Amino acid sequence: MAKAVIAEDEALLRQALLDLLAEAWPGLDVVAACEDGAEALEAIAAHAPDVAFLDIRMPGLSGLDVAAAAAEASPHTRIVFVTAYDQYAVDAFERGAIDYLLKPIAPERLAATVRRLQARSADDGAEAGALAALLRQLGAGLPRADTAPALTWITASAGRETRLILVDDVAYFRADHKYTTVVTAEGEALLRTPIRELVGMLDPNVFKQIHRSTIVNLKAIAAIVRDDSGRGTVRLKQRPETLSVSQPFMALFRHM
Fold first, then answer.
1. 83 phi, psi to nearest 5 deg
2. Do residues 185 and 68 both lie within one domain?
3. How far apart are CA 126 and CA 123, in angstroms?
4. Which of 87, 107, 139 is the last residue of a domain?
5. What is the pLDDT of residues 56-87, one digit of tens each?
6. Is residue 144 a part of any domain in this protein?
7. What pTM value is reported for the model?
């Protein structure tokens, strides 16, 4: 039985894709339905699915980021991008011979994609090359939708004290149940925003996820050490502790 991972941050659209796939591909086992790119990347690394349906625009890791890292984490996984982009972007997908679904997803379009996926061999090296070329093209300047300005300040609590923290001073953020721990050189404070929501508010050029539960400030990193298993360890400039980088996320540093 073929396995799949899907990633869509909007709950209604995620369920709609699940329902459409159940009709178009009854024998498909959806092993993970993910709410964000970080969760999707870990699911792809864990399950090595035959196909991953990735929304391009997600908080934090985009579908493009996940696809680039998944090429190392699970090289035989085929990628199908789900996109609401304009015709210019669609042309790029078609020239790269990459499967895509345009939102809102039409059942007949999904059925055609499923037929192509079922007909192709899992060891299609030409497809892997086409995906790599497409990712380079998209990363080189394909127009993207406007996003809100990145956070500059945050308010977080430390005991009875409420602190105003400059985001640039944050060494890393760590998930803490429904909240997020903010760690600076001076200490820790608690932010009443889940890390899944926070990641979309940060500047992606400065803050990178190294684990589903950890976001690090690149400016705070002193070194990254990789072990024989492929996992990494981050040493910080102004903090004594080290941070673990899960294996699939190590690929993100090589694509920076």
1. -140, 150
2. no
3. 9
4. 139
5. 888 888 888 898 899 888 989 999 999 887 66
6. no
7. 0.85
